Amino acid sequence: MNWKTLEQLDLNGKRVLTRVDINVPMNGDLVSDSTRIERIVPTIKKIINAKGIPILISHFGRPNGIKDEKYSLKKLIPCLSEHLDQSVLFTDVDEIEMIVRQSRALKAGDILLLENIRFRSGETSNDPILAKQLAEIGDIYCNDAFSAAHRAHASTEGVAHLLPNCVGCLMETELSNLEKVLSKPRRPFTAVIGGSKVSTKIDLLLNLVKKVDVLVIGGGMANTFLKAKGINIGKSICEISQLDIVEKITNLAIKENCKIILPTDIIVATELKNKTNTKLFDVKECPEQYMILDIGPQTVKEIKQAIKSSKTLIWNGPMGAFEFEPFNEATDQIAKFVSELTIKGDLISVAGGGDTISALSSTKSDKQFSYISTAGGAFLEWVEGKKLPAIEALRH
Ligand code: ADP
Ligand code: MG
User: Fold this and answer.
1) pLDDT tens digits for the chain (396 residues)?
2) Is 296 in the pocket of ligand 1 (CB under 6 A)?
3) Please, what are the domains in the chain?
4) How far is the CA of 220 from the centre of ligand 2 (A)?
């Protein structure tokens, strides 16, 4: 890796300014899903064990540079303390000079959490003055917020240049898993891409076509590919404006020797709701008044065959409108198949994306994947082949 890790720096007695992402979902004043907090615990413990003093920075919601109690990180202290098994100090003073003084008074074993960094107007604009001020609060900068790494903000990018820096444990895991898959994949390498729209995943598809041996296209976006081939798709969702892009992707695939798998059979219904009447058709026979809401069993079989002969798999986007039964069927079956092969050691499997994670976790097979990225936008930008500014700032 081209990044320093916590072990490579002497943390003894040092204030370790640590960028985390504890932008957790809330139910009133209570944390409703503490996954993001659980995932940063190893980093904080590692700093404390090395006798460093963690000073945590995070954003929380989008307060747009204005102090707003609704977005105060104070609410997260009970949950943080519970997971860290110790008390957490908090500061919400405005003047950075004052925070610098507070930070210098900290003792080994203390943990300090700063108030929501997005209360400061210079954060999202990556103001160099704010970055310089933040650098005064720490002796070392550690970034453990991969999910915020696609944004060049003062606390993710600006400050990284001003202090000796390193990646945290969570960031290290994300990066090594994504590198393993995208930089030097064991081949054959298959990508399974689904979801509703081609337009949100153009760069992703264009990059993957160059990297993978097989590209599976399912979900609503497959309809646009079918339409481009002159296949009638009834009332299914489709982006007519993307037909040119689809043609470009298809031609690039031929040039790059990448096989594209599209649905050959489809599950259709006249309305999108739970337990509605469904019908199975050959892809060429979609009736006019129906919508394609999942891929059919023949297509699932074909996808499984492709995955079975692969060594690496990357997955983003569900194969059907999985929020409604039974349109979760194909996604569930493929997820189970991927987890079986992963357990056997036959496949390296990485998945990411907001809806993908919820679709996979409902099958419980997500635990068996080699890696599930919770980074959302940053994960997608990485798979698109883009450089993430906060990561670039940490390169050595
Ligand atoms: P992710 O968040 O994992 O990147 P997307 O947001 O791209 O995934 O796609 C998820 C959405 O795609 C889901 O809401 C799902 O219902 C929708 N979807 C998948 N297949 C279809 C389909 N055939 N018709 C309509 N919507 C679909
Ligand atoms: Mg989504």
Assistant:
1) 689 999 999 999 999 999 999 999 999 999 998 989 999 999 999 999 999 999 999 999 999 999 999 999 999 999 999 999 999 999 999 999 999 999 999 999 999 999 999 999 999 999 999 999 999 999 999 999 999 999 999 999 999 999 999 999 999 999 998 988 888 899 999 999 999 999 999 999 999 999 999 999 999 999 999 999 999 999 999 999 999 999 999 999 999 999 999 999 999 999 999 999 999 999 999 999 999 999 999 999 999 999 999 999 999 999 999 999 999 999 999 999 999 999 999 999 999 998 999 899 888 887 899 999 988 899 999 998 899 999 999 998
2) no
3) 6-172 (3.40.50.1260), 185-383 (3.40.50.1260)
4) 12
Question: What does pTM read for this prediction?
Answer: 0.90
Active-site residue flag, 36: yes
Ligand closest to CA 220: 1
To the query of whether residue 197 is one of the catalytic residues in this protein, the response is yes
Give long-range contacts, CB 8 A cutoff, 24+ apart: 22-30.
Answer: 22/56, 22/58, 22/60, 22/73, 22/76, 22/80, 23/58, 23/59, 23/60, 23/61, 23/147, 24/76, 24/79, 26/75, 29/75
CA atoms of 164 and 170, how far apart (whole Å)? 19
Mutate to test the pocket of ligand 1, among 196, 203, 319 (most ligand atoms within 8 A of CB): 196
**Of the residues 197, 235, 248, 304, which is catalytic?**
197
Q: Is the CB of 321 under 6 A from ligand 1?
A: yes
Map residue 150 onto helix, strand or coil. Answer: coil
Q: Which atom of ligand 1 is nearest to the CA of 222?
A: 23
